[in-house]
């Protein structure tokens, strides 16, 4: 794949010039900003960023494997699981965002936009369509039921991978006692939280940032470009101060010792007008926790802090109402960039009129795969049309055959119907053969296409004929979406992002 950075490689150092010379259509598709709802950047006065998986993109397979290993270790030490599980292998393809865990049956499935379960798996095995139908289609599957757990962030993927591996492990081993599927899920949730809380994960990541966090060299220029157009920036992260400061410094501080270009900003903190850590999203948007100001070592200066925010100071906690007042920001003039569909996008859209941009790390893979298999996708469309046509033809012949049958049963004329019947029957047989062959081609092509995205789950944003539940949420709550924050540098800070005109089927 040609990345946007490769396109501009060798170009003059001043990225602004290159970026402003690029028309949106020249931007590689994997680096574009896609629009659900119109967004005028010239009306935006403040741009806020989440940190984890938004400004800081993690090496996903590595961090997932680390989370899985840390959690397995806790399951053995804290929950008495057999030591053999420490040898389980990790396959990152086993989970994607938008899956649902059925903790009663030990299954995982991918719902479509209506919440209707499509593909389903039990442990490491596929559940065939017939069985999945029996399980989930006899009555309405209510995803809000406690029985189901929604995997909606990159952070949660290892939980789903672990669940699949452990369900498979316990199904295939005779043991004196086994946890049931529901308890197994509770244990995984508990142990992964424990591994995060006691520092098992963040300490290792913090000590090897280069191994776990991708440093996007274009990030600094992107933030600088927003700032030079007069926009104020803020950071709003759930991570604590010590971790935030290490990661942000790794992402943005350039020192000659690290071989970086000298930066006009003495430290990463100078890019932001307001810095909020341990924000506790989604509660930041729904509750009224106070802001607490911290000193440089992360110690609270007082129990609460009031008055306008002071540049260069670190704040902890807080809530959106006070934020808007103290930052003198009017909601519709704020653009918030995050990666979490619930904590960043849905909650902020429902509790405020902040505009939203969603970072979807997987988008680069989805878009390049989509572009690579475009001929197959066109062939699938043609097969769809052929199936509809053959079905129509078959129905028509069957109606004709029934009419001939009636004539034969009540002969009022002496028309020779048997020859006509024979011809129609032959045509029906041929249509049935063609239909079977087209349907088989359709099935095989569809599975080739799905495998290109993910052999277990297919594309993230689709489930069969429908947009997936996850795709629907992205459409509903993100005004725009893109694969990484630095893609904004290809667009003018005054860009008018125009969404497609929303149309009902009869208007298309
Ligand atoms: Mg995040």
List the helices and strands and how they pair.
Blueprint: H1 4-8, H2 15-21, E1 34-35, E2 39-40, E3 46-49, E4 57-58, H3 60-79, E5 99-102, E6 107-111, E7 117-122, E8 125-127, H4 129-136, E9 148-151, H5 157-171, H6 181-197, H7 202-207, H8 209-212, E10 213-214, H9 219-228, E11 232-236, H10 241-252, E12 274-277, H11 283-286, E13 291-294, E14 314-317, H12 320-326, E15 334-338, H13 341-351, E16 355-359, H14 363-372, H15 374-409, H16 417-453, E17 462-463, E18 466-467, H17 469-477, E19 480-482, E20 496-497
Helix pairs in contact: 3-5, 3-6, 5-6, 13-17, 15-16
Bound molecules: magnesium ion.
Magnesium ion is lined by residues 50, 52-54, 338-340.
Overall domain count: 3
Main-sheet strand order equals 1-19-16-15-3-11-12-14-13
Output the CATH topology of the largest domain. Answer: Rossmann fold
Bound molecules: magnesium ion
Structural class: alpha/beta
Average predicted local confidence, pLDDT: 90
Over all CA atoms, what is the radius of gyration?
28 Å
Portion in beta strands: 5-15%
CATH homology superfamily name of the largest domain? HAD superfamily/HAD-like
Count of DSSP strands: 20
Q: What's the CATH class of the largest domain, please?
A: Alpha Beta
Individual helix count: 17
Distance between the termini: 33 Å
* CATH architecture tag of the largest domain: 3-Layer(aba) Sandwich
Q: Pick out the low-confidence regions.
A: 1-13
């Amino acid at each position: 794949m040609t990345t946007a950075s490769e396109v501009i490689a060798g170009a003059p150092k001043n990225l602004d010039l290159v970026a402003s010379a690029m028309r949106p259509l020249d931007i590689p598709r994997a680096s574009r900003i896609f629009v659900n709802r119109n967004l005028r950047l010239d009306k935006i006065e403040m741009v806020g960023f989440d940190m984890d998986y938004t400004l800081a993109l993690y090496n996903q397979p590595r961090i997932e494997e680390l989370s899985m290993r840390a959690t397995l270790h806790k399951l053995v030490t804290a929950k008495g699981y057999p030591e053999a599980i420490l040898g389980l292998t990790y396959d990152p393809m086993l989970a994607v965002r938008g899956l649902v865990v059925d903790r009663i049956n030990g299954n995982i499935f991918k719902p479509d936009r209506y919440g209707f379960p499509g593909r389903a798996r039990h442990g490491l095995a596929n559940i065939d369509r017939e069985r999945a139908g029996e399980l989930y289609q006899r009555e309405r599957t209510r995803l809000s039921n406690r029985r189901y757990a929604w995997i909606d962030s990159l952070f949660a993927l290892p939980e789903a991978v672990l669940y699949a591996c452990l369900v498979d492990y316990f199904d295939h081993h005779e043991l004196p006692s086994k946890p049931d599927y529901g308890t197994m899920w509770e244990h995984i949730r508990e142990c992964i939280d424990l591994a995060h809380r006691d520092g098992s994960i963040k300490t290792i990541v913090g000590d090897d940032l280069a191994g776990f966090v991708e440093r996007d060299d274009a990030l600094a220029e992107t933030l600088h470009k927003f700032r030079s157009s007069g926009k104020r920036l803020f950071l709003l992260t759930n991570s604590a101060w010590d971790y935030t400061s290490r990661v942000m410094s790794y992402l943005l501080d350039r020192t000659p010792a690290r071989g970086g270009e000298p930066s006009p900003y003495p430290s990463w903190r100078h890019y932001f007008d307001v810095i909020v850590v341990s924000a506790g999203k989604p509660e930041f948007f729904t509750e009224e926790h106070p802001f607490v100001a911290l000193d440089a070592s992360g110690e609270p200066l007082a129990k609460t802090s009031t008055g306008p925010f002071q540049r260069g100071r670190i704040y902890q906690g807080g809530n959106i109402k006070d934020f808007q007042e103290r930052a003198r920001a009017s909601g519709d003039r704020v653009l918030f960039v995050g990666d979490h569909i619930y904590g960043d996008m849905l909650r902020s859209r429902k509790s405020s009129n902040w505009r939203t941009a969603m970072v979807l790390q997987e988008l680069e893979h989805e878009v390049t795969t989509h572009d690579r298999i475009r001929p197959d996708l066109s062939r699938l469309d043609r097969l769809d049309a052929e199936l509809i046509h053959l079905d129509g033809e078959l129905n028509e012949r069957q109606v004709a055959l029934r009419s001939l049958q009636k004539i034969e049963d009540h002969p009022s004329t002496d028309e020779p119907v048997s020859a006509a019947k024979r011809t129609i029957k032959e045509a029906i047989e041929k249509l049935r053969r063609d239909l079977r062959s087209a349907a088989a081609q359709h099935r095989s092509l569809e599975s080739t296409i799905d495998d290109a995205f993910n052999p277990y789950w297919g594309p993230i944003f689709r489930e069969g004929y429908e947009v997936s539940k996850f795709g629907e949420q992205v459409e509903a709550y993100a005004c725009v979406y893109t694969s990484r924050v630095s893609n904004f540098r290809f667009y003018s800070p005054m860009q008018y992002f125009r969404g497609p005109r929303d149309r009902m089927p009869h208007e298309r």
